[in-house]
Amino acid sequence: MSTKLVLLDQLAACHHDKSWFVPLDEMLRDVTATQALSLNDEGQSIWRLVNHLTFWNETWLDRFIKGEVVMDNSINNDETFIINPSQVSEEDWQKSIARVGATFSRWIQVVEESDDAKLGMTIPSYFNAPWWNVISNLCIHNAYHIGQIMMLRKKVRGEMI
Q1: Distance in angstroms (rounded) separating the CA atoms of residues 128 and 110
Q2: How does DSSP classify residue 77?
Q3: What is the pLDDT of residue 88?
Q4: What is the per-residue DSSP string for 53-70?
Q5: Among 37, 52, 33, 48, which residue's Cα sits nearest to residue 91?
Q6: 89 vs 33: CA distance, rounded Å
Q7: Could you tell me if 126 and 71 are in contact, meaning their C-beta atoms sit under 8 angstroms apart?
Q8: Which of 22, 31, 6, 2 is nearest to 139 (CA)?
Q9: Largest Cα–Cα separation, the chain
Q10: DSSP β-bridge partners for residue 122
Q11: Dihedrals phi, psi of 155, to nearest 5 degrees
Q12: What are the residues whose beta carbons fall under 8 Å from the beta carbon of 122, sequence distance 6 or more?
């Protein structure tokens, strides 16, 4: 199996292809804005996690498309979880779900259109890591937070763990 096919499989498993875990699109289905805003004991919520995933998935997608990584030390990771308090309606929540889904779809499209040479290119400004490795780790990052979302969903919806 090629590197590209492995990456596409990982992206699909995170986004929409039920595999070893429930994918994000299914995990977010039927979650209301109120449920998505509900905080756990650590101050985390489904909506905050979705914002965080959207930020990093979009950031790395933009870097991949441009073919360059300029490390931005002004990014405060904690700020990637923030929810705009003036945008917490059901409509805003649905837009957040659509945005994270669209970013996954775009990642899948871009990887499908990439050649092996681009996937194997190293990123000098990012530990000389090859792009395939960065995309694979992006999927691991998504899977980690999807697990958190699953636990939060079960708690706020009273589902069995």
Answers
A1: 21
A2: G
A3: 93
A4: HHHHHHHHHHHHHHT---
A5: 33
A6: 7
A7: yes
A8: 6
A9: 48
A10: 130
A11: -70, -50
A12: 128, 129, 130, 131
d(CA 37, CA 50): 11
The token duo for 148 is 């958190």
Q: Which has the higher per-residue pLDDT, 60 or 158?
A: 60
Q: Across the chain, what does the average pLDDT equal?
A: 94
- pLDDT tens per residue, range 84-107: 888 899 999 999 999 999 999 999
Q: Whole-model pTM?
A: 0.94
- Cβ neighbours of 160 (radius 10 Å): 4
pLDDT tier, 161 (very low <50, low <70, confident <90, very high otherwise): low
What is the rounded average pLDDT of the residues 15-31? 93
Closest alpha carbon to 4 in 106, 140, 111, 104: 111
Distance (Å, rounded) from C-alpha 107 to C-alpha 56? 12
DSSP code for 121: -
